[in-house]
Design a protein that fits this description.
By secondary structure, this protein is α+β, with helices and mostly antiparallel strands. The chain has helices at about 10-15, 35-45, 55-75, 150-160, 170-175, 180-185, 245-260, 265-285, 290-300, and strands at about 30-35, 80-85, 90-95, 100-105, 115, 115-120, 200-205, 210-215, 220-230, 240. The protein folds into two domains: about 30-75 and about 235-285; about 80-230, no CATH class. Helix content is about 35%, strand content about 15%.
Length: about 300
């Protein structure tokens, strides 16, 4: 029986029958839901005269979710993106299903993304309140009081000038500030520090507050965050690309056998090797390596460079 159960008209127009009304689910054929993976696993891998004679469905559900979570970090394409206008507070709240970022950038008037680089030169530490004698101030519960925001963050938001190409005022403020001049000219005598040799702006991750904080030149600019999710945040995310389905099956099988009592070691090692091979194949298939694009890139190696 064929897997496609809708007409082309239903696919292109969506449930409401209106073209491009944002209720369509284009490209869904390349993915398999986690419920289908669990059902297929219970039918094919579990039963008499099979590698797993008996297992609870809840165990399969747990290991299937773990597989999606592990594969989402480096195998499955679970990258998401968010676009906001940077507020005067110079921050972006992390998305609800944020795990880690892959790229941050701001968008110029031509729609080109200018990459932002992470800096380790500042942070948002937890501030302790002190009196005039520099002694800690305690609250009614006997805990140290925490003034907000920290002095480090306040100075960063106030004085984080960053030079921008074509901005005379930004360059003048930067040139007239000896601290910033020494900071961004670090290594200039014997070669620039590559992570600081750019004028797009910088950011850092404020894990304690769940925010991403930007340099002051990004106020009012459109900022784009591309980040990784674990694939378990919501039901529509819990899908697996068809190139990686076999690797998911092998992962679940190995995970069940490795914790099951009286399982022979050779069976565990066998599926460990099969899982590694299937995961490697999934990475290769999902890596988007196209022969024509590779050939076009390699043509660049044949250019003549005059000496």
């Amino acid at each position: 029986m064929a897997l496609i159960n809708q007409t082309q008209e239903q696919y292109y127009l969506g449930p409401d029958g209106v073209w491009d009304s944002n209720d369509e689910n284009y490209g869904d054929y390349q993915f398999v839901s986690i419920s289908d993976i669990i059902n297929n696993f219970m039918v094919v891998y579990v039963g008499e005269e099979k590698i797993i004679p008996k297992v609870k469905r809840t165990d399969v559900v747990f290991h299937a979710q773990q597989a999606i979570q592990e594969f989402s970090f480096d195998t499955l394409p679970q990258e998401k993106s968010v676009e906001i206008e940077c507020p005067p507070g110079l921050y972006m709240i992390m998305p609800q299903d944020y795990v880690n970022y892959t790229k941050l950038s701001w968008v110029d008037n031509s729609g080109v993304e200018r990459i932002l680089y992470r800096t380790d030169l500042t942070s948002n530490p937890l501030p302790y309140a002190q009196d005039n004698n520099y002694q800690y101030i305690f609250d009614s519960d006997g805990n140290v009081a925490y003034p907000q925001p920290s002095e480090t963050l306040r100075r960063w938001q106030k004085n984080s000038e960053f030079p921008i190409s074509g901005d005379a005022n930004g360059w003048n403020a930067w040139q007239n500030n000896p601290d910033l001049l020494n900071l961004y000219a670090y290594g200039g005598r014997y070669g620039l520090n590559p992570e600081q040799a750019q004028a797009n702006g910088v950011f850092y991750i404020d894990h304690s507050k769940g925010m991403i904080r930007f340099s002051s030149n990004l106020v009012g600019k459109i900022v784009t965050l591309k980040y990784i999710s674990d694939g378990l945040g919501c039901d529509e995310d819990m899908t697996v690309h068809k190139f990686a389905v076999d690797a998911i099956y092998k992962y679940i099988t190995h995970a069940i056998l490795s914790v099951k009592a009286n399982t022979q070691e050779y069976a565990i090692q066998r599926f460990k090797k099969e899982m590694a091979a299937a995961r490697r194949n999934a990475k290769i298939r999902l890596s988007e390596l196209k022969s024509d694009l590779m050939a076009q890139v390699m043509r660049n190696q044949s250019k003549w460079i005059k000496s």
